[in-house]
Amino acid sequence: MDEIRLYGLIGYPVSHSYSPAMHNAAFKQLGINAEYVLFPVQPEKFKEGFANIIARGASGLNVTIPYKERVMEYLDKISESAKLIGAVNTVVVKNGKLFGENTDGKGFVKSFKLVTGKTPKGKNIFMFGAGGAAKSVGFEMAFSGARSLVIYDIFEDKAKALACRIAKNTSSFVKAVSSKDKEAMAEEILKADVLINASPCGMKKDDPKLLDKKLLHKGLVVCDVIYNPPETPLLKDAKRMGLKTMNGLGMLLYQGAAAFKFWTARQAPVGVMKKALEAQITRLHK
């Protein structure tokens, strides 16, 4: 029997992740002798932890908060699109070399189209966050024809740097709003067609609210990259107002399917992966 192939998710924390359920169901369906596990690695131990996982013979990894940018310096080759985005969420190990790719943005846009029935083309977008997930989501929405993208992050320099990079490489109008200027933030949200939370805010019960719910207006589509909990306070407020909402589950599914293909060179069984995710949600959120 072939030796079991090892895949997993590196990040901190990772205990909330549904990825093992999804990928292990896919391996089983296709008869691939492989296992997907969680690798919680604390920030101060990342270099050593990452090296140890590779030394254990991992064939591929997903990368999550807070390492999507940090992991890049330890890779041998990075795809042009991941270089442009400035973040990696998928690592493939081939012949002892580490290759980095980013499937987050494409996963988000695919989910956006399917869940909302809309396309990013011509839309005015307001996005919270300027980290690894926000980079890929922001770039992909701009590549998909967004008219404008306004970025807000508590670290203003990060928001400005990301806005500059996306503006330079796409045809969308892109700018950052100051984290100190709540009035400007409110003004931009009121002009938006789509609001995206691409920050971790909302994962924990004691997280502060992102915005005053009075800013949620008719016709606004509200998206969150968070999938656990399935409904963040932001999405709850939007739903109560009858707005169209989307959580991060579709993004997780479609970025995972793309990562699976990079690792195995086989088409991912998306239906099976989706069922595994739904079963996981039912178990955890009865």
Descriptive notes:
With 286 residues, the protein is of the alpha/beta class. It has two domains: 5-102 and 250-284, Leucine Dehydrogenase, chain A, domain 1 (Rossmann fold), CATH 3.40.50.10860; 105-247, 3-Layer(aba) Sandwich (Rossmann fold). Helices cover 41% and strands 20% of the residues. It has ten helices and twelve strands. The chain has a six-stranded mixed β-sheet, with helices on both faces. A hairpin with a 2-residue loop joins strand 5 (90-94) and strand 6 (97-101). Helix 4 crosses helix 5, helix 4 (104-116) crosses helix 9 and helix 9 (249-264) crosses helix 10. The longest helix has 16 residues, at 249-264. The radius of gyration is 19 Å and the shape is globular.
Low-pLDDT runs of 5+ residues are none
Kindly state the percentage of residues in helix.
40-55%
Structural domain tally: 2
Radius of gyration: 19 Å
